[in-house]
Design goal:
single chain; 447 residues; alpha/beta; Rossmann fold; five-stranded mixed β-sheet; 18 helices; 12 strands; binds NADPH dihydro-nicotinamide-adenine-dinucleotide phosphate; binds (2Z)-2-iminopentanedioic acid
């Protein structure tokens, strides 16, 4: 069988065995379609069915999460943890609380996480979890009771050497606090390394909050440097206004980029004079309000309800909200408007057709596995600090993050050239991540 036919057959089998999980199918296809040249160089990967094994999670946990709301009514949500691959280290990956969460979303995220984590070069396997719980409009007490119920089941599957969750959409330091408190209570152990993204006051790492957004901007900087360009003076747009978006905007501004727009699921703020980031932080991080409220404070800013951020002219575009938020039509608009670089702060925000538009136009495109790996890499730095009962300074930790992002960029760039597609970071990231996992799987035998 040719390698192309083998890859086609693996994909068909994934679709057949995981019906209705469109996002998972998409994530698998995006990776395995780039692996043909690897199979040519390494026939042993095909012989040992490495791809087939990677596409099947090691373990999938689905559980009931009952809790009582403030009115005393019983609510029932569904919890998930997909422990995808642990050949490089304990399972590692975030938890997402959003009403759209179902098994297909958790599996797509867990699958991506395997290769992203391998790319960081740190000893971490791949996993993801979450719930269809919607935190919007819920009180602190409701969020706490939900987190306690969620952890009452999940704790038996975790451990600093087994599985180490962190945050993702809808899960930040508040939720990690409630989850950690319940884990400690259930196990009678102060096991700092069982969760990352903890507050620095009780075992968290400095820079973890900033790391995904900062890392994405470091990756953009590396891509531009490789082309003799820089961020300084470039007009930038960043979708979303959550954790990743806020700190991507902060680093862009510190590198003298001019950020003119951000968004949430209701609409877009366009502020040509430059986004007032302190206001965004206050609205989103402190007051938990909507981005629409920004326009109340700046009369020269425009709020576009239901608008597409990708219609705004820019040089650099960072999708930092959610999956499939940037489609083919949006990609064509960005290219026509002169955009030179796109990097995925979010996981799989760019549809496959949109990625093709960027690649054909020859613009720098950084896939999420590489561009947003700074978050999980800093989680691994948090695990290092917890294991040695140490705390590092902000400067030292940020320097480590910057080095890691530089290394990821270099490895992806080199692999793309080695496998005949110079400048193709999608192919480079997939191949570097895959090879690291494949080598460990070969060494461990049939497991
Ligand atoms: P947050 O919950 O902090 O923020 C999410 C942002 O995305 C909000 O502005 C939200 O708007 C918007 N959003 C979420 N869902 C949708 C949707 N269906 N349609 C439109 N907008 C949406 O999450 P994060 O910033 O942590 O995560 C953002 C992305 O980055 C995700 O793809 C996540 O997987 C990825 N990521 C996160 C990492 C981390 O460390 N946190 C690490 C690596 C990747 P609204 O408030 O209206 O819902
Ligand atoms: O998608 C991701 O990489 C994350 N949500 C962060 C995972 C982590 O374990 O820090």
């Amino acid at each position: 069988m040719t390698n192309e036919a083998r890859i086609g057959r693996i994909y068909e089998q994934v679709v057949r065995r995981n019906p209705g999980e469109a996002e998972f199918h998409q994530a698998v296809k995006e990776v395995i379609d780039t692996l043909e040249p690897v199979l040519v160089k390494h026939p042993e990967y095909a012989e040992h069915k490495i791809i087939e094994r990677i596409c099947e999670p090691e373990r999938q946990i689905i559980f009931r999460v009952p809790w009582q709301d403030d009115a005393g009514e019983v609510q029932i949500n569904r919890g998930f943890r997909v422990q995808f691959n642990s050949v490089l280290g304990p399972y590692k990956g975030g938890l997402r609380f959003h009403p759209s969460v179902y098994l297909g979303i958790v599996k797509f995220l867990g699958f991506e996480q395997i290769f992203k984590n391998a790319l960081t070069g740190m000893p971490i396997g791949g996993a993801k979890g979450g719930s269809d719980f919607d935190p919007k409009g819920r009180s602190d007490g409701e969020v706490m009771r939900f987190c306690q119920s969620f952890m009452t089941e999940l704790h038996r599957h975790l451990g600093e050497f087994t599985d180490v969750p962190a945050g993702d959409i809808g899960v930040g330091a508040r939720e990690i606090g409630y989850l950690f408190g319940q884990y400690k209570r259930m196990t009678n152990r102060y096991e700092s390394g069982v969760l990352t993204g903890k507050h620095p006051k009780w075992g968290g790492s400095l820079v973890r909050r900033e790391s995904t957004g900062y890392g994405t901007v470091y990756f953009v900087d590396e891509m531009l440097k490789a082309r003799g360009q820089s961020i300084e003076g470039q007009t930038c747009i960043v979708s979303g206004s959550g954790n990743v978006a806020i700190y991507a905007m902060e680093k862009l501004q510190r590198m003298r980029g001019h950020v003119v727009a951000c968004s949430d699921s209701n609409g877009v703020i366009h502020h040509e004079r430059g986004i007032d980031l302190e206001l965004v932080k206050r609205l989103k991080e402190v007051e938990r309000r909507r981005i629409a409220d920004y326009a109340e404070f700046h009369r020269d800013a425009t709020y576009l309800p239901g608008g597409s951020i990708w219609n705004i002219r820019c040089d650099i575009a960072l999708p930092c909200a959610t999956q499939n938020e940037l489609d083919e039509a949006a990609a064509r608009t960005l290219v026509a408007n002169g955009c030179v670089a796109v990097a995925e702060g979010a996981n799989m925000p760019t549809t496959p057709a949109a990625v093709r538009v960027f690649q054909e136009a020859g613009i720098a495109f950084g896939p999420g596995k590489a561009a947003n790996a700074g978050g999980v890499a800093t989680s691994a730095l948090e695990m290092q600090q917890n294991a040695s009962r140490d705390t590092w300074s902000f400067e030292h930790t940020e320097e480590r993050l910057q080095q890691i992002m530089g290394g990821i960029h270099r490895h992806c760039h080199e692999a793309a050239a080695e496998f005949g597609s110079p400048g193709n970071y999608v192919l480079g990231a997939n191949i570097v991540g895959f090879r690291r996992v494949a080598e460990a799987m070969l060494a461990f035998g049939v497991i």
